[in-house]
Amino acid sequence: MISNLAQGVRAFTSNVYLVSGDRTVLIDTGANFDVVDAVRSRVDDLEAVVLTHTHRDHVGNLDAVTDAFGIDAWGYDTSIDGVDHGIADGETVRLGDHEYEALHTPGHKNDHLCFYSEEAGVLFAGDLVFQNGSFGRTDLEEGDRETLIESIDRVLERIDPELEEMHTGHGPSVTVEPYDHVELSSQMARQM
Predict the structure, then answer these.
(1) Neighbour-count burial of 157, counting CB atoms closer than 10 A to its CB (0-12 exposed, 13-18 middle, 19+ buried)
(2) 126, β-bridge pairs
(3) H/E run at residue 182
(4) Hey, which residues are catalytic here?
(5) How many angstroms separate the CA atoms of 165 and 167, rounded?
């Protein structure tokens, strides 16, 4: 079960996905709203926080979540404050009831990860790509357009064209032909 706890929040935040099941985790923590209460209203406990990347809008609530639930945060780069454990490129992580492959996808930020489960038909895309061909900003520190295009193409090569759901760092999740949205993001990133 995947729920976006930031849905309807009017503050500047990322999406925050509660993935419940065998291993209940939070994907990103968002910022500027009480995500701890939002979690507690749905589940009794969390096992971990998994980060797509460490931009402030994705980790602003990180300390509040790890303190409230006594859990650790997992991300790509353990040299960054708040990231307790590293997830390597290609590593398998359990999110909810499924195994996901971590894909290191820099270009928006150096520590960016996407998580893909072929079995579940789900991609957590972070800020790499969004609906309708949008893609992550490359004008921030560590942003690089060519690297972003390479990352998008890597994800395209890895995911199944029959992908069922794409959960993005901002905006709505894509549940109608999400593969096509990733393909369009690859094309759009080359045109700008």
Answers:
(1) exposed
(2) 168
(3) helix 178-191
(4) 57
(5) 6
- Both tokens of residue 46? 């969390």
Segment holding 39, helix H or strand E: helix 35-40
pLDDT 10s digits, 47-64: 999 999 999 999 999 999
3-class secondary-structure state, position 166: strand
Instruction: Give the model confidence (pLDDT) of 81-90 as tens digits.
Output: 999 999 999 9
Q: How far apart are CA 125 and CA 117, in angstroms?
A: 12
Do the Cβ atoms of 24 and 47 come closer than 8 Å?
Answer: yes
**Predicted model pTM:** 0.97
3-state class percentages of the chain: helix first, strand second, coil last, to nearest 5: 25, 25, 50
Q: Are strands 122-126 and 165-168 parallel, antiparallel or unpaired?
A: parallel
Angle between the N-to-C axes of helices 178-191 and 145-158, in degrees from 0 to 180, rounded to the nearest 10? 160
Domains for the chain: give ranges and CATH numbers: 2-191 (3.60.15.10)
